[in-house]
Design a protein that fits this description.
Number of helices: 4
CATH superfamily: Gcn5-related N-acetyltransferase (GNAT)
Radius of gyration: 15 Å
Strand content: 25-35%
Strand order of the largest sheet: 1-2-3-4-5
Shape: globular
CATH class: Alpha Beta
Distance between the termini: 42 Å
Largest sheet: 5 strands, mixed
Bound molecules: coenzyme A
Length: 132
């Protein structure tokens, strides 16, 4: 079992390191997007194997509602409950701030993953989106 530690990623975190994490784990984010993620996310939780960033999860909120996104674990580390732990820490940070509802949007196959951390799924609720 790998030993992983969890800590908040601060506004001073290197965008280049975050970009390297995405490249290894879930490619598609540019350096400028990583700069904006660090600047605008309300909370980012990082999972580390020693100094190596192996998982992240982040939230955006307005102190009433929160949206969690980019819950990502490096492929070599998946299946070790790291994603679950990241979501739990993120949600406990948001609950401290009296956020009323935490939303997330995901693929159908990951519904059990979010249910495992307490999220409710109502078959009548769907997420609509408008792409830019
Ligand atoms: C989704 C993700 C973060 C899960 O991370 P993880 O650390 O491997 O997840 P956990 O070990 O905490 O999984 C806990 C449970 O969630 C479910 N689960 C996790 N990944 C799953 C997957 N890909 N498909 C279906 N169920 C999954 C399983 O029930 C699992 O329990 P089990 O290990 O007893 O089978 C990881 O697979 C990932 O980075 N995927 C690519 C990015 C992504 O799609 N993120 C979600 C964006 S909304």
């Amino acid at each position: 079992m790998v030993k992983v530690t969890y800590k908040k990623i601060t506004k001073k975190f290197s965008a280049k390191k975050l970009k390297d994490f995405f490249t290894e784990s879930f490619p598609g984010k540019t350096l400028s997007q990583c700069q904006n993620i660090i600047k605008h996310s309300s909370v980012i939780i990082g999972a580390y194997d020693k100094n190596h960033l192996v998982g992240i999860g982040r939230a955006l909120d307005d102190e009433v509602y929160a949206f969690i996104t980019d819950i990502i674990v490096n492929p070599n580390y998946r299946g070790n409950n790291i994603g679950t732990k990241i979501v739990k820490i993120l949600c406990s940070e948001l609950k401290k701030r009296k956020i009323r509802v935490i939303h997330c949007s995901t693929e159908k196959k990951l519904i059990p993953f979010y249910q495992g951390v307490g999220f409710k799924y109502n078959k009548n609720d769907i997420t609509l989106f408008l792409k830019n």
